[in-house]
Specification:
Length: 141
């Protein structure tokens, strides 16, 4: 299943949507819920233990960042706001370049390779899929 199909299944199983495109996480969560529904979930004893441990846990917090982290951008990538277009199997795909990622079909991805995998279902070098590696070939010749 694609990430989009898994997101739809997650919404069906949990009754709420998720924005994460992470296939492995979605598969684990969906499988856990299906098993919990079939087998009855956690026992009353396990739930009591979880409540007890949760009550004794220290409060977790993250120190707020004083300055935004610098993003190391690959110089081969186009400027943020650029729309990359790639025709694949008769369909044209558009991906918007962000400062720290990419948007494809309303979902945010951290790498072009992740976008290429979402489109094709197989592992691709994102620069090669979107033909951004052409300048390397021209420089080498």
């Amino acid at each position: 299943m694609s990430s989009r199909e898994l997101q739809a299944e997650y919404a069906r199983v949990f009754g709420e949507s998720t924005k994460t495109p992470h296939r492995d996480w979605l598969i684990k969560k969906i499988a856990w819920r299906i098993q919990a529904d079939a087998e009855g979930g956690l026992s009353a004893r396990a739930m009591e233990q979880a409540d007890k441990l949760g009550a004794d846990a220290p409060v977790r917090w993250n120190r707020p960042a004083t300055t935004p982290k610098a993003v190391n951008r690959d110089p081969r990538l186009p400027s943020p706001g650029t729309v990359l277009k790639r025709k694949y199997k008769g369909r044209t795909y558009e991906v918007t370049v962000l400062r720290a990622g990419f948007v494809y079909d309303g979902l945010e991805f951290q790498s072009l390779s992740a976008v290429a995998k979402e489109i094709t279902g197989t592992v691709w070098n994102g620069l090669r899929f979107f033909r951004l590696d052409q300048s390397e070939k021209a420089a080498a010749s």
